[in-house]
Amino acid sequence: MAMIELGFGRQSFHPLKRKSLLLLKLIAVVFAVLLFCEFLIYYLAIFQCNWPEVNTTAYDGEQATREPVLRAMFLADTHLLGEFLGHWLDKLRREWQMERAFQTALWLLQPEVVFILGDVFDEGKWSTPEAWADDVQRFQKMFRHPSHVQLKVVAGNHDIGFHYEMNTYKVERFEKVFSSERLFSWKGINFVMVNSVALNGDGCGICSEAEAELIEVSHRLNCSREARGSRRCGPGPLLPMSAPVLLQHYPLYRRSDANCSGEDAAPPEERDIPFKENYDVLSREASQKLLWWLQPRLVLSGHTHSACEVHHGGRVPELSVPSFSWRNRNNPSFIMGSITPTDYALAKCYLPREDVVLVIYCGAPRQTSAEALWKLAFSLVPRESLGRHLIPSTPSFSTRHPGKQASESCSDHGKGVLKMS
């Protein structure tokens, strides 16, 4: 009788052991997939990005000096969801993606300053005080940064409303969190941050105040270009003698995205749709004022969620920065800039594609080992969809390379498209 019971126990032991091993393997596969898709894939993507090289030698007459380099990150249109729009799972998924991407970029790339080019929030234009406070708290958690890294944010239409929705309360609420700073100088480089929503030109109170601020900034920039001690400039401190980098949410005026190209440009079926002034882009008049008043050497903007590189007046390059969120595009990215007082170099860093992550999740159940999962991941993540893409610079105001110009493939009222390298 004892032998029969012993034999029965031996027969039932092996199936139980096999089930336990299968369960352990399943748990290991699930853990490996989660670890890769929610953490490691961001390191894999951003590790391939490097700061672009920029010439740091400046010439003042016959004397050569070495200029400091500022490492700056530019991203746009994070669109943190509020209390009304979007499913809770949508909010959780996309905000986790942006948090992991941002924190990984900070750790690997160690920028000195980060600029967010508007539409930080999706529902700031109508959110209640309680909802606004909750959105701000989530933003500060997602985009937390060390004290030595500066974070600068410009206003977008989803933060304070379109012109017809904008009011003093919303603008002041935004500026209380993100500052009302219009001019930021560091390492001899001037950045002008514009509330482009307020450049409607209809004489509204907020618009008039915004124009007055820009005229004052223009005066200070002009003084930096003039001889030291000019009577017109007064006794106050002068800005660095460097053409500014213009940062705003709305792009400068262009007819459409018809001349834009690249894997993260607008879809072909949308590129020929005409842009509406003061809605999709700034008006012609506002754009001309900014170019005339500020004389920027480079313009960076957001709003369209897609990439585009154009020339204004045949000289001033503008780069529209794609959205940083999976909610707005499958292949988000950000811009890396190595900037000196007289030159700059830009590169684009692509984040993981959302469809790649979903395919890895779907294909994981068929894999039986960590090695197979790793091979699956690499087979689905093409090299050209990750890492750094150099963007040709056009330092029109450079004192070292007066003849250096990016090529134009076409023109439209003085505007051209910068060819991707």
Structure write-up:
The protein has one domain (68-353, 388-418): 4-Layer Sandwich (Purple Acid Phosphatase, chain A, domain 2). It has helices at residues 2-46, 88-109, 129-142, 157-160, 168-178, 205-225, 284-294, 354-363, 370-380; strands at residues 57-60, 63-66, 70-75, 113-116, 150-153, 183-186, 189-193, 245-247, 298-301, 308-312, 316-320, 333-339, 344-350, 387-391, 408-412, 415-418. Strands 5-4-3-12-13-14 form a six-stranded mixed β-sheet, with no helix packed on it. It has a six-stranded mixed β-sheet with strand order 6-7-8-9-11-10, with no helix packed on it. It has a two-stranded antiparallel ribbon with strand order 1-2. With 421 residues, the protein is of the alpha/beta class. The longest helix has 45 residues, at 2-46. It has nine helices and 16 strands. A hairpin with a 3-residue loop joins strand 10 and strand 11 (316-320). Residues 382-387 and 393-421 have low confidence and may be disordered. Belongs to the metallophosphoesterase superfamily. MPPE1 family. Keywords: ER-Golgi transport, GPI-anchor biosynthesis, Hydrolase, Manganese, Membrane, Metal-binding, Transmembrane, Transmembrane helix, Transport.
